[in-house]
Design goal:
Helices cover about 40% and strands about 10% of the residues. It is of the alpha/beta class. It folds into two domains: about 270 residues, Type I PLP-dependent aspartate aminotransferase-like (Major domain) (Aspartate Aminotransferase, domain 2, 3-Layer(aba) Sandwich), CATH 3.40.640.10; about 130 residues, Alpha-Beta Complex (Aspartate Aminotransferase, domain 1), CATH 3.90.1150.10. Bound molecules: pyridoxal-5'-phosphate. The site of pyridoxal-5'-phosphate has 14 residues, from α3 and α4.
């Protein structure tokens, strides 16, 4: 395959407006967090609130990644050593690792059948088990491993692929069990529930990712949103070394800009203005980018819906269409998923797999003594899924080529 004909898995949509914004910051003499980051936060809030500002007001806080945003979110919710946090096994590692940063324990929950989302029924069953004093994983399978037990403190639903989770059911369960809800909205900008509410604004906090492949990108970056003023203030403090300038202002009437007071052991998780400027332009394109993604996803849906070899990804009207996770009906094919991927790649089409379930990863598997079969729905999804290229700016001919490559491989290995 000629290099110029290859179709990448993802590609950011960067135009002259983004270039001009970055150049403006480069020439301004101020590269790190400043006015651009503040403006990006205000504009992000305005995007989500529109003209119907609700009370309490949503606060948006820029961070240097969604991973840091999730870490700050858990810290602000008071998660500490030994606290249990419920996390879907079917997610990227960031969602779970942040629990371990704070020495909490991860309790994995399986995916709901035929979806990629945390299963509210499995969530409730796990919580009931824990409330009876039982361990989360009753039969650890390896020596030295253990099943966490104790009081669960939080749940992190993931809006996988940009499709919002069943938030009504999750919020109901979380409130009954006294859990904080941190929405991992890394894939979900802009995603809406059927009542028009934005994914990321329903729980106690929401965390968006602006990583290079995401629906809005700053290369690396993220945004944390919350309507809880205490949580938002804690995040603002902890993303910047635990430095509180207001402490100094309270005790002095001089404007000593060089002085600062450290009131907690914080982190360096701020977003520089160079990236915020990029994000501000991308935000103005949010609808345009979404329409481009929807068009590509609709073309895939139309091409694959009547094929016995595939199952379409679940979707809905408010889906941000970050991913197109096509599932292979392996019982109709004489080829494995891995071999299928090799053939797609050999034809010059970039693909990926979202995700390898976390309970099968050596660190979590060994810590909690888990087997792959312990979370069967997550494993079932993983074994047959392929994420197809889906990025704004993809040409019709490229979409057609992906379809043709995928269909041809399936036909050549059909046992339907
Ligand atoms: C579900 C999910 N959560 C969190 C993250 C972390 O995002 P970031 O790369 O901005 O830290 C990712 C990254 O891809 C993700 O897929």
């Amino acid at each position: 395959m000629c290099k110029d004909k290859a179709i990448p898995f993802a590609r950011p949509f960067i135009g002259p407006e983004e270039e001009a914004a970055v150049l403006r910051v480069l020439r301004s003499g101020w590269l790190t967090t400043g006015q651009e980051a503040l403006a990006f936060e205000a504009e992000f809030t305005r995007f989500l609130e529109g003209s119907n500002e609700t009370s309490p007001i949503l606060r948006s806080l820029t961070v240097n990644s969604a991973t840091s945003g999730l870490h700050l979110a858990l810290e602000a919710c008071g998660i500490g050593a030994g606290d249990l946090v419920l996390v879907p096994a079917y997610t990227f590692v960031s969602t779970a690792e942040v629990v371990r940063y704070l020495h909490g324990e991860v309790v994995f929950v399986d995916t709901a059948p035929s979806t990629f989302h945390i299963d509210p029924k499995a969530l409730e069953a796990t919580l009931a088990q824990l409330s009876r004093g039982e361990a989360a994983y009753p039969k650890p399978h390896s020596p030295g491993s253990f099943g966490p037990r104790g009081v669960p403190k939080a749940v992190i639903p993931v809006h996988y692929g940009g499709l919002p989770c069943a938030m009504d059911a999750i919020m109901d369960i979380a409130r009954r069990y006294g859990l904080k809800v941190i929405e991992d909205a890394a894939h979900a900008f802009p995603s809406q529930l059927s009542n028009g509410t934005w994914a990321g604004t329903i729980g106690d906090l929401g965390v968006f990712s602006f990583y290079a492949t995401k629906t809005l990108t700053t290369g690396e970056g993220g945004m944390v949103v919350s309507r809880d003023p205490e949580i938002a203030s804690r995040i603002a403090l902890m993303r910047s070394h635990g430095i509180d300038r207001s402490v100094w202002n309270r005790y002095t009437d001089t404007q000593a800009s060089w002085y600062y007071a450290v009131v907690a052991a914080g982190y360096k998780y701020n977003m520089p203005d160079l990236l915020a400027a990029l994000g501000r332009v991308q935000l103005t394109r949010a609808w345009e980018l979404l329409e481009m993604r929807k068009k590509i996803a609709a073309a895939y849906d139309a091409a694959f819906q009547d094929e016995v070899h595939f199952s379409l990804p679940p979707t809905g009207p408010g889906d941000a269409r970050h991913l197109y996770p096509l599932r292979l009906n392996l019982e109709r094919l004489s080829i494995t998923r891995d071999a299928f991927i090799e053939k797609i790649q050999a034809a010059g089409v970039g693909v990926s797999v979202h995700f390898i379930p976390l309970h099968s990863m050596p660190y979590y598997r060994d810590r909690y003594g888990l087997r792959e079969a312990d979370l069967p729905e997550s494993m079932g999804n993983f074994q047959r899924v392929i994420s197809l290229p889906l990025w704004p700016g993809m040409q019709d001919a490229q979409v057609e080529r992906v379809i043709q490559v995928v269909k041809t491989i399936a036909q050549e290995h059909s046992c339907a």
